[in-house]
Amino acid sequence: MKSVTRSLRILEAVAQHQPVTVGELTKLFGLPKSTVQRTLVTLNEAGWLRANRSDTTRWEIGARVLAVRPAALQGSSLFAAAREPMTLLRDTLNETIHLSVPDALQCMVVVDRVDCDHAVRTYHAIGDTSPLHATATGHAVLAHLPKSEVDEFTAGTLEGYGAETITDPAELRAELQRVRDRGYAVNHNQYLQGVCAIAAPVLDGDGVPLAAVAVSLPDSRFEPGRLAELGRLVTGTAAEITARHLR
Amino acid sequence: MKSVTRSLRILEAVAQHQPVTVGELTKLFGLPKSTVQRTLVTLNEAGWLRANRSDTTRWEIGARVLAVRPAALQGSSLFAAAREPMTLLRDTLNETIHLSVPDALQCMVVVDRVDCDHAVRTYHAIGDTSPLHATATGHAVLAHLPKSEVDEFTAGTLEGYGAETITDPAELRAELQRVRDRGYAVNHNQYLQGVCAIAAPVLDGDGVPLAAVAVSLPDSRFEPGRLAELGRLVTGTAAEITARHLR
DNA sequence: CACGGCGTTCCACATTCCGGCATAAGACCT
DNA sequence: AGGTCTTATGCCGGAATGTGGAACGCCGTG
Fold first, then answer.
1. Please, which of A12, B69, B211, B218 could form a disulfide with B202 given CB 3.0 to 4.6 Å?
2. How would you class B221 by CB atoms within 10 Å of its CB: exposed for 0-12, middle for 13-18, buried for 19 or more?
3. Which nucleotide in the DNA or RNA is closest to residue B51, CA to C1'?
4. CA separation for the pair B28, B59 (Å, rounded)
């Protein structure tokens, strides 16, 4: 359904660039003005957009988006299962713990967070997105997907964010094998500089990855000698969430 | 754009009934199975839905909504304009302050909240919805809409939630006139029992209501003698937000 | 005053989506 | 086990639906 897909794309673009005009969106997508215009009007009538008439008509996201809440926020089984183990892990390490889920193989989205109380700490807001190929949570998820889906993913370009980012598909596949072998993924400066993260996947009954838990901390507090210990703890937490989720 | 409108309807239905099956949705909409199925697959590919395979395929809202959510809040100029005046009002009264916007004349949606520090307090999460005809914020908005839109709204049934709910269109119109006269709306047990709220509208340059600010407090702390004072403060806060928003 | 940029509207064409039908796979009762 | 009901998924011809080029009207500018 072409028009539906495009409408949602436009909706997301409005969210990113609001308040935005028709012209800006046509340039962004390279679509005819009339098509974009019609889409905006339709989304507006449906209540998902708001027209903001000051000088020229600018479009903003409507309140409807807030009313449609993902299962993650409504106490879905996964969310509920994760809260306690995450808090426990935070108490053990006093480092920030994140729960992220894959979004249609395009990015990881942070759905929950338990903070540490250090003055210096990493910060990712709930709803923040990050690339699959350059984060620990992304690797944890990719490592447990069937080969065909990983191939499909690596078919696209792997953007680089720094010297450490893995941009070569073959190298990524090798890294994913290491992740499977030791049970957890490690990210050091692949995406955000100065941040280190260790992540393990939460799987459903069939072994399909649903999410990943990660401990993330500033470079300055990361002791390489403790990596195995951290990995064991994170893997244990992920296993506990998986177990609670299945019941 | 029929298919787009329908897709969004289905998306909203999934949000309300998740996790839901294709069959349940076809019954809900009276549409052919194949149509609903195709729509679900498309929304899934776009990342707005997730398939949850346990016994039968059940559908849930996907993580994509989380990525768009922050934009719905922070992006709007209204949000920024409201934060400080709301905090000021909370400091003055030490009661919880809410900012709500109308969603396509169907409900009010809470977009921001500043908490008081009483042990006993009212609680509405960001994203919570409530009926227009049974809340102070709803009345504040309705009172400043053109007569034609109010008529359109009252054409539907006004559901009752308790003895105090106004379910008669004529009575509602009279109440809206009182709201206009004194500048603020009052709600006492019309929707949620034991809760009292006083609200005033935020208008745009043309007098169209964009939102409403409300102070809401438990019955036990509401002193009828202070109503005029509370009303004056809430109205003042709304006026301040309106002024800041216009600049 | 003419011009250019912008948002909005119109309309004929053909692409896209609709929805009936058929198949397949479980689930549940007998 | 066998049979029946419900549910999920795939297919395909026809027609409604969405497409996008072009024209319109509005405003600020040179």
1. B211
2. middle
3. D8
4. 15
